[in-house]
From TrEMBL:
GO annotation, biological process: methylation
Gene Ontology terms, MF aspect: methyltransferase activity
Keyword Transmembrane helix applies: yes
Protein name: Class I SAM-dependent methyltransferase
Membrane-crossing residue ranges in chain numbering: 311-331
InterPro entries on file: SAM-dependent_MTases_sf
This protein's record includes keyword ATP-binding: no
Length: 353
């Protein structure tokens, strides 16, 4: 605990210097048209803040009236993305994120995804895009011990995944830049909750096709912007996940785009892709609005009384969080079979011609 506090104190100066001029410089100019279909008519979907790390800034999601694509507008610049991603998957947040992906729920979900693919192909060489620390390949290997799993990610976590044996080969960088070097190499490419983080999903899908051999399969799971849970919970809906999620693609849009790229969609479903966390996360976000601030380097250090009050209130809220999580699990069989499902899965085969 003392070491963690010291790390926060060391980082506070650099964060405060970055924030001295505000957050406006982290954004690009606002778009006047849809990045998916180029339609000119947009409407505001929601306005929100960073409800996970509580970094400063306000974020807007717009929806295209023509195709239903939802996207961050104005979008973060690369400098802004670097700022808001920092200390989430690495640094201060590395341990918390690792626990999330190593939990039984994540492992079970990963293995469901593998089983969904097996009726269509038994992969020999699989590339997991956005693999981070390689938790998906490590889980999938238990079902497919003969399959070679490689991983791709921008961060150094992919190199650690290779050193720890979770993947065979690490590719550090962007798929759009590396795809030509791995053309026709893989018979499966997976993108688990990856596309929504990307600047240009069109280019990412084209790059995935390049990396796949003819007859290979692309496996995609993403948040569903048409979910009724998103409408009901508004900016408390976890999958909006601002500011990291930049694009939200309706299911029909993705299937049409894949078909245009030379894929045949062999499966598209919402049921098995649902992640039962909507209510517990919404409850935590609500608490975040009333709790005293946490000790984080992008804000002034709270006083001793505020820290004690936060600790006491968090413990007092545990029964409510457990009840919300219990409700997520109890309702899961119903929600995952309805339009309240919060995600969808698409499996597409690259055509041979």
């Amino acid at each position: 605990m003392a070491a963690h506090s010291e790390q926060i104190a060391r980082l506070r100066t650099s964060y405060q210097e970055e924030l001295a001029d505000g957050t406006d410089r982290f954004f690009l100019p606002r778009r006047t048209g849809c990045p998916w279909c180029l339609g000119p008519e947009l409407r505001v979907k929601l306005r929100t803040v960073d409800q996970v790390q509580r970094k400063p800034g306000r974020f807007v999601l717009d929806e295209c009236v023509s195709c239903g694509h939802v996207f961050q507008n104005p979008r973060l610049s690369q400098e802004g993305l670097d700022f808001y991603y920092r200390d989430f998957y690495d640094g201060l947040g590395a341990e918390t994120t690792a626990r999330m992906f190593e939990g039984r729920g994540s492992v079970r979900r990963f293995q469901h995804s593998v089983r969904a693919l097996l009726p269509h192909i038994r992969p020999h060489r699989w590339l997991d895009v956005g693999t981070a620390h390689g938790h998906f390949p490590a889980s999938a290997k238990k079902l497919l011990p003969q399959t070679r799993f490689d991983g791709l990610d921008m961060g150094e976590s992919v190199l650690l995944a290779e050193r720890q044996g979770r993947i065979t080969e690490a590719h550090q960088g962007q798929l759009t830049e590396l795809a030509d070097t791995m053309a026709d190499r893989y018979d499966t490419v997976s993108m688990f909750h990856y596309l929504e983080h990307t600047l240009d999903p069109h280019s990412e899908l084209a790059a995935a096709r390049t990396a796949l051999r003819p007859g290979g399969h692309l496996l995609i799971e993403v948040p569903d912007p048409e979910s009724l849970s998103g409408r009901l919970l508004g900016n408390l809906w976890m999958p909006w996940f601002q500011p990291q999620h930049l694009n939200f693609i309706p299911l029909s849009n993705l299937c049409d785009r894949l078909t245009g790229l030379g894929f045949t969609v062999v499966a598209a479903e919402r049921t098995d892709a649902h992640i039962p966390v909507d209510l517990v996360c919404a409850t935590w976000f609500l608490l975040g609005r009333v709790l005293p601030p946490d000790d984080v380097p992008w804000a002034n250090r709270p006083g001793r009384a505020a820290r004690a009050a936060r600790w006491a209130l968090v413990w007092a809220a545990v029964p409510f969080l457990l009840a919300a999580y219990g409700a997520d699990l109890l309702l899961n069989p119903l929600l995952r079979r309805s339009r309240f499902s919060n995600a969808y899965r698409v499996i597409a085969r690259r055509d041979t011609h």
